[in-house]
């Protein structure tokens, strides 16, 4: 099976282009707004609903999504540049702002969103975990859509495999990984890691965190489940994803950058989760 050739540009008007990757982000923000509105409405209509979702009105949701958008864009791009492409940034500083070319880091985006949510909480007089517990169930949908954008851009090629799951990648997509790819497609087959991560981060994680948050939980518990769930799923799926060629394996020559950055997430998630679930 061959990797489908998809044009990353949805609409080309010459000087103005709409790319699938950017559209996925727009859809992600819209989906987060819809889910946040639904989550707040469920909390208002049910006395047993999650306390984390209580007290969020329509304006709160709109403002929260706005803060989240800024956090994702600024943190995600800055994190990608810092963790995966700092050398390229030194050669071409304007590359930092060319987000439409692709290149966003979840871990950087997480830091950016946490900073934005802290600012939102401080301005509204809310507890930080009250806000993060409200937002955590919304995030997986955006992650899944982002990975679909990676798939359309033919990004994140997987590791070579001899299983039936492998596909032949276009040579331009793996040019930095191998010197033996000539013609249209690579002879070897690889995992489609972008779809693996779209399913695990977008579907599995959403189901896990959404249903966990449906019942009353101690402050920080929902955030803890998200951190542990994402960190573990990302750590496992990275074994099917080829490390970035200019970064390689960075943790004891075994772990990718994504796996290394996920370990503190899991540790902090456990720190948040264990005492809160044990006290119930």
Spell out the blueprint of helices and strands.
Layout: E1 9-12, E2 17-19, H1 20-45, H2 58-84, H3 86-91, H4 106-124, H5 128-135, H6 139-152, H7 193-212, H8 221-237, H9 257-278
Antiparallel strand pairs: 1-2
Helix pairs in contact: 1-2, 1-6, 2-4, 4-5, 6-7, 7-8, 8-9
Provide key terms for this protein.
280 residues; mainly alpha; two-stranded antiparallel ribbon; 9 helices; 57% helix
Written description of the protein model:
The chain is mainly alpha-helical and 280 residues long. The chain is built from nine helices and two strands; from the N terminus they run ββααααααααα. It has helices at residues 20-45, 58-84, 86-91, 106-124, 128-135, 139-152, 193-212, 221-237, 257-278, and strands at residues 9-12, 17-19. Strands 1-2 form a two-stranded antiparallel ribbon. Helix 1 crosses helix 2, helix 2 packs antiparallel against helix 4 and helix 7 (193-212) packs antiparallel against helix 8. The model has no long low-confidence stretch (mean pLDDT 88).
